[in-house]
Amino acid sequence: MANKEEVLDSILTQGMLPLFFYEDAEVSVEIVRTLYKAGVRVLEYTNRGKEALHNFRLIKKAVVEEMPCLYLGIGTIKTGLEAETFVDAGADFLVSPIVDNEVAMVASNYKMLWIPGCMTPTEIHIAQQYKAMLIKLFPANILGPAFMSSIRELFAGQLFIPTGGVEIEAGNISGWFRSGVCAVGMGSKLISKQVLDERLYEQLYADTVKALELVQLSK
């Protein structure tokens, strides 16, 4: 099982956490292969459909066989049962859109990195009480960098990652890092429905390389 400090360090070093879900298992595996070829070493598959567990297991098998040093997390985890199920399937870390005490307990029991989603100072405070090392600002497109700038001194030393609406655009990414985040989550703006439906792997490769470069310039 992955060490939570090592997973966190990988996210901080990469400065970006790609995330996606797709119903087709083979496409899901190929997307992960493409991200890996572009330089990604930590990513999140999201629990957004009935195929998620089956697909996650296939992705994990491919990671073990083909992609050394890649940390594979599971997102959209809202209950303790979901957390236990995906830990059993080989998840290296857990990501939630909410703060849930059962998920927090599962993560604590396995000494795993858990990234809860927060939208208010109160939620951030509760997440800190659960010892969340990294907190997801969600939905980031609603909150914006100004929110991060406003709360950073309230929660000095806390690590934050915005997810939802972060663009592959220098001004957008640099704006987030200037506001005080340590990394950015990249979902549909990087791995779009068109990329998934039309199997645009070359486009995804190029966009991922560009996004990683922009992040490194912005950090």
From TrEMBL:
One Pfam family it belongs to: Aldolase
Pathway assigned in UniProt: Carbohydrate acid metabolism
Gene3D superfamilies xrefs: Aldolase class I
This protein's record includes keyword Lyase: yes
Keyword Lyase tagged: yes
Stored CDD domains: KDPG_aldolase
SUPFAM superfamilies in UniProt: Aldolase (SSF51569)
Keyword list, A-Z: Carbohydrate metabolism, Lyase
Family: Belongs to the KHG/KDPG aldolase family.
Subunit composition and interactions: Homotrimer.
Protein name as annotated: Bifunctional 4-hydroxy-2-oxoglutarate aldolase/2-dehydro-3-deoxy-phosphogluconate aldolase
Organism: Mucilaginibacter pankratovii
